[in-house]
Write a structure and sequence with these properties.
The protein has 115 residues and is of the alpha+beta class. It has one domain. It is 55% helix and 14% strand. It has four helices and four strands; from the N terminus they run ααββαββα. The strands form two sheets. The protein has a two-stranded antiparallel ribbon. A two-stranded antiparallel sheet has the order 3-4. β1 and β2 form a beta hairpin.
């Protein structure tokens, strides 16, 4: 195969679904945070759960405000919900902003010539 044939093959081989999957995989790998000796995967569910455990007046479950949560490896980790929530929110905004920018570029690509 000469250079021109290789270039034509690359243009044909561009797979939009694979490119989208690669972006999603990269984003998912960045959605982790370390806290209190554990590793947590930042999801919408984790953020909602932490919001639910925010301290409320007249309700004191324990003196230090900490709760046990299972981390990504199913290890119980004692956390302060509002601290972990703050860390998770920052990571979520950071990664999702990058994802939005990458996805916008991705949608502009129609074939391998535009890479």
């Amino acid at each position: 195969m000469n250079t021109e044939e290789l270039r034509d093959a690359a243009r044909v081989a561009y797979d939009r679904e694979l490119a989208k999957q690669n972006i999603n995989t990269a984003i998912e790998s960045r959605m982790t945070v370390n806290y209190g000796g554990g590793m947590f995967i930042v999801t919408q569910e984790l953020i909602a759960f932490l919001h639910a455990w925010m301290p409320t007046p007249n309700l004191s479950l324990n003196s230090d405000g900490k709760i046990y949560m299972m981390d990504a490896y199913d290890v119980p980790v004692k956390v302060l919900p509002y601290e972990l929530l703050h860390i998770c929110q920052r990571r979520w905004y950071e990664v999702m902003n990058e994802f939005a920018a990458e996805y916008e570029e991705f949608t502009k690509i129609r074939n391998a010539k535009q890479l």
